[in-house]
Amino acid sequence: MSKGSLPGPAGDVRSGRAQADAPGGRLAHRRWRAAPSGGTARSGSAYRLPPALPGLTWLVVVGAVVVAPWAGIGGYWTRQIVLIAIMSSVVSGLNIVFGYAGELAVGQAALYAVGAYVAGYMSVKLGVTDIFLCLAAAIAAVIVVGLISGLPGLRLGGWALAMVTFYLVLLIPDFVNLLPAQTGGAGGLAGIPNPTIFGAQLTGNGLYAVIILVTAAWFILFRNVVKSPYGDRFLVLRQSPVLMSTLGVSVFRIKLLAYVIGAIPAGIAGVFFAFYSTFISPDSFTFTLAITIFAATVIGGSRSIYGAILGAALLIVIPGEFASFNEYATVIFGGFLVLAGVLFTGGLADVARLIGRRLLPGRGNRPEAVAATMSDQALALPAEIPGRELRVESLSKSFGGLRALRDVSLSAAPGSVTAIIGPNGSGKTTLLNVICGYYAPTHGTVRLGDEVLSGRPPHSIARAGVARTFQTPIVPTGMSTQALVATGRTVLSRAGLTQTALRLPRFRKARSADESVVTGLLRALGIDHLAAVDVASLPLGTRRLTETARVLAAAPALCLFDEVASGVDGEDLARLVRVIEGMTRAGATVVLVEHNFPLVLEIADTIHVLSNGELVATGTPSEIAANPRVLQEYVGVAPGAGDDAQPE
Amino acid sequence: MTTVWSGLALGSLYALVALGYNIVLIASGVFNFAYAQLLMLGVYFTYTAEVVLKSPLVGVVVFSAALVAVVAVLEERLAIRPIADRLGSHGTLITTVGVAALINGVVVLGWGTQPLTVPLAIDNKPLTIFGGTVEASDLLLILLVPLAAIGIHFWNTRTLSGLASLAPAEDREAAMVCGINVRRVAIISFAISGVIAGAAGLLIGPQTYADPNLAQNLALLGFVAVAIGGSGHQLGGVVGGFVTGLAYSFAAQYLNATLADIFVFLGFLLVLLTRPHGILGRVAERHV
Fold first, then answer.
1. Confidence check on the interface: ipTM exceeds 0.90, yes or no
2. I need a surface site. Which of A142, A221, A431, B92 has the fewest CB within 10 A?
């Protein structure tokens, strides 16, 4: 192979299939629409950077709501709007935790109570009424409570977190009774004074305006976090913790992050509730409230931003309009949760999106038909990747009595393609899983360069420069192809949460770098016209190309491809081969686990053959092709007839 | 010793909830959040049969067990099965919480918010055993719950049908391919857990009263029992239930009732932190 040659135009594609794919050749039929040369113009729509501040509509709406009391909407509706704003904040927190990160935290009500009691205690007992001071203290308090309650529950996730937080809600009266001097005990804390802002008292409409403006500001931050790589990470987490760790992110830490971010608005809402109602007691924070919050999230659409406001509004307004509603509230919410869980999971936000798509056919997730005018010269691959040698030393892995790997030693050199082949069940994927840290080796070590990988958790191994595809591609729902590929760059991420929430320059810079790399990769793989398409709607072959792009997005030192070519054919395969070879030329260490024997013979520099967990042969393609044991065990007797395309 | 007995009595309640959680969890991989509500419903049905209908003892048990089983089966049919084929457990996270809220609401509408006294069905004279007093119905519960758990555990591990019922939770599709009717397994598991919940009403009702807040406490402490014992492990659930009950009872004796709740909560957090898979649970390696 072209080791040592300069990474240049990929003119030296050896594969016959690849040559058939010359520009203007078979690609011609894909030219649905003339596109500008280099055309990034349309393909970036789903990944286009949303502005730091929402548009004019949002400003007008917030402005109108703020001035509404002065326009004479009356005390009842002023109060309702405040309650909606407070509830929306609480619900938005659950949207982050449940809708995006997929962890059910019933305890929003408890964190809400913490915020309320912090404000009550500070203003009544300490005489501190400055609203920003109270907000800061409440946020600090909910973060602490969030960490304490989140740490144990999040290790298991799922029901463990739901129960820990549910427990927290039921314990509110106990905690309140524990400190009667500070909290007023079961009787409640009365006489909460008006808050102050820069020394001036906030009363009536003034307090109203502050609550609306702070809530609006929170929603901007919420939107900025959700519509960013952080939001994408939460979506990946929800779908597949395994993929998350492959991207170099500790699953536990990202869960905790989502949970703590979700706690913040609950704390803010609690402060506002305390000041607005001037009285708080454990009766305000009950299991019914927890269920109401949950129902509001589900009604509005848990994976949405403004659905939180919609859900909160419905659950505030409807009970207010029907006097007998409260009696039936639990039954109705319960029945609704069952219905919603069974019939539609997207809530009203999904309905709105659907209507929006019908009314505005130009928007939405329709495939952008950008012509694939890619030429070989357009291969947007990094020019130089510091590849590192993979060394697997006498590795064994047993599952109970099953010895999946027995004393396997092999290596893969930088700047070359190393293939691992073998019949089904020979231990190929197990080997990859051990390298990536999903399985701890029973014996032996894995090294990358001079770093020992074995024994480290998967996300740490990913951060060392290991990226992989999966035998069954993992694609989260609700993400564009482009966004999924961009998650591959998580290990390179330099923009922190504050940078992201405030859309500071470092975030913008990172985002545009991501965008150009992703666009280039998609073009190189010939799937740039699918950039804005929902990645979960793609067929298997295209999913594989997407995963390949995701792996390459971070230019990792070691790329592991698990049957990346199965389900991919024709020109797509040729492009895939060209991209893999491009990465190799740039210096990456490439390991292929592959069933497609002719393909392996074509592109591999070294081939290792596994059988029953043992390494039975190692050599160049021509040596392996001539090895009688390999022919007998793996390929069958006749060379070339062994295209074992069966999925494992 | 009386503290020990009262701890064991409490523990048998929690073990009972854990038993119901585990039956369904083992058979269909679903965590039925509403199981404590089913137990509560059993207490209410027992109350209705005993006090309102003045039914004989056998009638009470059959009435309550049958009705709760019907509710459990309805739950499976309407709230679990339609989303059984969907990926991930987020669906049942929503629907079982929904069922729980629904039952809670129905109970309040049907029987009111005031706790109702469920009369004793058996002669309940306090016994003095090992220097502590324990009521006969408590003793019965302390003995019966572990027996039921052991019975189910051995059925699950020693018989073909029991082993087959484990398969759907492990791998739904593979179980189907093996000729196991996963739907039937799921529905039977819900029905059995419902029968147990309904029948148990007779024994637990006199202790707990028919109280709409009953389910919340049972749900939590039953979950604590499962977390301590390791999810999906019947014997672990019983051990976890008794450990929780004893911890609670001793904390209430030597601290006070408020602190006892918090004490058990902190213990629960500690178990999750240090032994996330429970005392008897196994750590499964991740699948890719």
1. no
2. A221
For A159, which of B31, B91, B261 is closest by C-beta distance? B31
Same domain? A273 vs A393: no
Band of pLDDT at residue A17, cut at 50, 70 and 90 = very low
**Total domains, chain B:** 1
Would you state the structure tokens that stand for residue B77, as one six-digit string?
A: 């049919």
Residue A152, pLDDT > 80, answer: yes
pTM of this structure: 0.82
Report phi then psi at A327, rounded to 5: -60, -40
Is A156's CB within 8 Å of B272's CB?
A: yes
Dihedral of the alpha carbons of B16, B20, B25, B26, in degrees to the nearest 10: 80
What is the count of residue pairs from A and B with beta carbons less than 8 Å apart? 148
B252 inside domain: no
In a shared domain, residues A514 and A393: yes
Please name the residue of chain A whose CA is at the shortest distance from the CA of residue B80: A342
Whether A114 maps to a domain, the answer reads yes
CA B199/CA B195 separation, integer angstroms: 6
Q: Which of B233, B51, B245 is nearest to B153 (CA)?
A: B233
- Does residue B138 lie in a domain region? yes
Domain of A203 in residue numbering reads as 56-287
H-type alpha helices, chain B = 2-28, 35-47, 57-75, 90-111, 136-158, 160-170, 172-177, 182-208, 214-229, 234-254, 257-274
Tens-place pLDDT, residues A578-634? 888 888 888 889 999 988 888 888 889 999 998 888 898 899 988 888 888 777 766
CATH number at residue A560: 3.40.50.300
Smallest CA-to-CA distance from A423 within A215, A639, A180, A616 is with A616
Contacts of B107 (CB under 8 A, 6+ apart): B37, B40, B41, B44, B212
**Domain region containing B62:** 15-212
Tell me the pLDDT of chain A averaged across its residues: 81
Mean pLDDT of A381-388: 77
Please give the Cα distance from A339 to A31 (Å, whole number).
45
Could you tell me if A15 and A603 are in contact, meaning their C-beta atoms sit under 8 angstroms apart?
yes
Locus of tokens 């649970």: B281
Are A340 and B220 an interchain contact pair (Cβ–Cβ within 8 Å)?
A: no
Cβ separation of A345 and B91 shorter than 8 Å? yes
The per-residue b/e assignment along A613-646, b for 16 or more CB within 10 angstroms, e otherwise, is: bebbbbeebeebbebeebbebbbeeeeeebebee
- Alpha carbon distances (Å) from A249 to A58, A231, A470, A503, B122: 34, 13, 17, 21, 59
Q: What is the mean pLDDT of residues B193-200?
A: 90
